[in-house]
Amino acid sequence: MERTPHIAKPFVASAAPAASDGSRIGFENVSVTYGALTVLHSFTLTVNPGEIVALIGPSGSGKTTALRAVAGFVRPSGGRILIGDRDVTHLAPYDRKIGMVVQNYALFPHMRVEENVAFGLRAHGAAEDVIKKRVPECLAMVGMSTYAKRYPRELSGGQQQRVAIARALAPKPQVLLLDEPLSALDAQIRRSMLDELAKLHRDLPNLTVLYVTHDQSEALTLANHIGIMRDGKLKAFGGSQSLFRHPPNRFAAEFLGRAN
Ligand code: ADP
């Protein structure tokens, strides 16, 4: 499989400090089965520290399963998952130092915005004085400071997703997993959220992001590298611009050509 040279995106300043190796995500020959169905087949991928890698591919190709395996919600039947040099394959989700945002917000409806963000910190055992300081910081990071006292039902979809991002980032994870975070939003909000995600990553250059999307233009806009999956395998991987310009194989060419 061809690995194309890194193409720096405009939002990754070249003067940014090198991200620490501790945030590298490594899949080493990871297999996942559901009953008789194998949905990841010896899946191998490295997401370098501070990079955004987007996983795209047909529905059912295993993108979400790959993400959930990093989060610790599915247990591989073979292979290893590394965060930095730590083998996290058998660690519980809360011990992995990972933030995750899914498509449908998953905020707690009975908790105010600030309580939702605090929940993630409490779950990680943060002290109350730390929580008091960190919650406003995180809400400011996603432009939601004035909504701290609202309930999720009083927010738009885009605002709820901002809160979900604030909650995921509150414990200062080294790795952020995003599973179709914008797909429930309408096109205009999606575009502005893409800009905000890019800005967020500029502000947090050490954060390593694995981003699952069915939207190729989202992947192209946001990611440094893109992986294309089919049938639980990585069929192509490369710098996002070059992958689109020079698909390394027929499947990649057909997949990328089909959607536009
Ligand atoms: P993608 O994100 O690319 O659409 P998924 O990782 O969600 O793909 O799913 C990969 C395959 O695994 C699909 O065939 C899906 O039906 C199956 N699958 C996903 N989750 C489960 C589950 N909890 N139990 C059984 N099969 C599942």
UniProtKB/TrEMBL annotation:
What keywords were assigned to this record?
Answer: ATP-binding, Nucleotide-binding, Transport
User: What is an example of a GO molecular function annotated in this UniProt entry?
Assistant: ATP binding
Q: Which residues form a coiled coil?
A: none
Q: Does the keyword Nucleotide-binding apply?
A: yes
Q: Where is the ABC transporter domain?
A: 25-256
Keyword ATP-binding appears in the UniProt entry: yes
Q: Which protein is depicted?
A: ABC transporter ATP-binding protein
The organism is Ollibium composti
Concerning its family, UniProt says:
Belongs to the ABC transporter superfamily.
